[in-house]
Amino acid sequence: MKILVINAGSSSLKYQLYNMEQESMLAKGRVERIGFESSILVHESMGKQEITEVSEILDHNVAIKKVLDMLIHPEHGILSSIDEINAVGHRVVHGGESFSSSVLVDAEVRQEIRKLFDLAPLHNPPAMMGINAVDANLPNVPQTAVFDTAFHQTMPPESYLYPIPKVLYTKHKIRRYGFHGTSHYYVSQKAAEYLGKPLEDLKMITCHIGNGGSLTAVLNGHSFDTSMGMTPLEGLMMGTRSGDIDPAIVPFTMAKEDLTMSEINSMLNKHSGLLAISGISSDMREIIEGVQKGDTNAKLAFDMYEYRIRKYIGSYAAAMNGFDVMVFTAGVGENASYLRKAICSNLTYFGIELDEQANEVRSSEIRRITTDQSKVTVLVVPTNEELVIARDTYELVKNK
């Protein structure tokens, strides 16, 4: 069975094609600047050279058509016909309380995703555009929706409710939802397999750290608490997001700076975090480079970033009454040994003993970076959210 995985943004679209018999990726690519005359399609079929094509792609329908044309291209493609595509799986950021697992897309699912537009105005509408675009180009192919929030639906009320008037939850569903769920699920499963232990017997903290970042307390195989909230803005300091701040800062700053709601939202999501404090970049590689060159603002940004991650780790250790395993994943978590060392070196109270040589190894494989004497096992686990989407799609379609 061949499954196409789609991650649609407002002006971009990423895709991967899988052969589920071997769980092998056949092709991958992305479309950027959708809606512009100079849109960019970057495509790579496995075993073939990457190709970049610039053309006019005015909407998601055209984007999907371009992707399908590339997949069957006689020189650059990998399929003889689009009829080889058996199903399409979509990443949908917000499933609210409606979805605790992945689902086949039907009229009812579409309606529920639309109802959630208010909770994820930047993410769910593009996902629906992706679903509609596949409809237009592959009308008879089953589609699935895989939700970032689904894994976190096991959180207990003490974790997901906010201490605000409960009517706001009952009327408007204002609560913690959490995100990066497919990644937290995948790496927790892989960590348990690597250790040869049942996931349900472990207390684990998974650290998905990229330009966006979140931590999850995984207790007995289920999400018990997670750092992102009703939106991806809450929690850790991130590349351009503020993470946790005093809520009173919002009306205070709006009044003092005469900002609109849209402007304050943009400030907190796009102009804060590492970028705001360092004045250099939102990219951790450039921050670390600045630290090593003696840039005081870069050092402050790094120290704040590391400290806030460590505070969440401590809070989740308290929430679960200890932890056995900690996992680093995503772009920064998998590659920034300098950050991992800083975090682990400040968690010796928990019995973490870093193997510095192992920590410096760069690999695409899962690996342990603590010594045999360490009371907590720390792993680096490369994430694969697209494979989770493909697997869930395969199971849903197979059993249709």
UniProtKB/TrEMBL annotation:
The record lists the catalysed reaction(s) as: acetate + ATP = acetyl phosphate + ADP
Pathway terms, separated by semicolons: Metabolic intermediate biosynthesis; acetyl-CoA biosynthesis; acetyl-CoA from acetate: step 1/2
Indicate which residues the UniProt annotation says bind Mg(2+): 7, 385
Q: Which Gene3D superfamilies did the record assign? A: 3.30.420.40
**Site: Transition state stabilizer. Where?**
180, 241
- One Pfam family, please name it: Acetate_kinase
Q: Which InterPro entries match?
A: Ac/propionate_kinase, Aliphatic_acid_kin_short-chain, Aliphatic_acid_kinase_CS, ATPase_NBD
Enumerate the cofactors the protein uses. Mg(2+); Mn(2+)
* Name of the featured protein: Acetate kinase
